[in-house]
Design a protein that fits this description.
globular; 13 strands; mainly beta; 204 residues; Immunoglobulin-like; 13-stranded mixed beta sheet
């Protein structure tokens, strides 16, 4: 699975970016809300992501950052910017319809480190609820990325890996969907070996 990340001048141009579908329900289930997204790269600024789910009145109980929003109806984005390393760092951003965001980094599922307050400047999550759908928009600043990956340079042609998810882990309409397939027996999004390949492209 691959995704082409278009270079854009501002968030207003995100609609020019390719759409990805979060439609791999790797572990079955009958509740399958349609979820899609777009990711763009703004030079010297960072990434902007928008995800949309066709889900009416999404379950949303948590209101504070770093709450376990994956128990609510949530959309998520995971990024690894040094995928060729052995056990590289990857970042997870998990967001509910209240705009609460769990944001961490680490090398594996356990013992993940919350993004510290001093690095959260520019890391923004905005959620919007419509009558038949809801959406989240995430801004991921270069300052945060380069703090975690200090030797990284991002430009046209740069490659990284990522995956995008739709989840509700608590009882009632439990579901697990991904953009890139995850061929394992039990639900687990923390498997960077199954992230999709992504590359930054010049504007068209």
């Amino acid at each position: 699975m691959t995704y082409d990340v278009l270079t854009i001048k501002s968030e207003n141009a995100l609609s020019q970016c390719p759409v990805f579908m979060v439609d791999q329900f790797n572990w079955g289930g009958n509740y399958r809300p349609a979820t899609s997204g777009r990711l763009g790269y703004i030079p010297e600024t960072g990434f902007v992501l928008e995800m949309v789910c066709q889900e009416k009145d999404p379950f949303r109980s948590f209101k504070k950052d770093n709450d376990p929003v994956y128990l609510d109806s949530a959309m998520e984005a995971f990024f690894c910017f040094t995928p060729d390393e052995t056990k590289p760092y990857y970042m997870n951003f998990e967001m509910n319809a209240n705009g609460a965001m769990l944001a961490c980094y680490g090398r594996e599922r356990e013992n993940r480190t919350p993004i510290p307050e001093e690095l959260r400047k520019g890391l923004l999550c905005h959620a919007q609820i419509e009558e038949e759908s809801w959406s989240v928009r995430l801004t991921l600043p270069l300052t945060l990325i380069t703090a975690i990956y200090p030797n990284l340079t991002l430009d046209t042609g740069s490659r990284f890996t990522c995956n995008f998810y739709k989840i509700k882990e608590s009882e009632g309409q439990t579901h697990f969907a991904s953009f890139s397939p995850i061929p394992v027996a039990k639900p687990d999004f923390h498997l960077p070996e199954y992230f999709a390949h992504a590359q930054i492209h010049a504007p068209v």
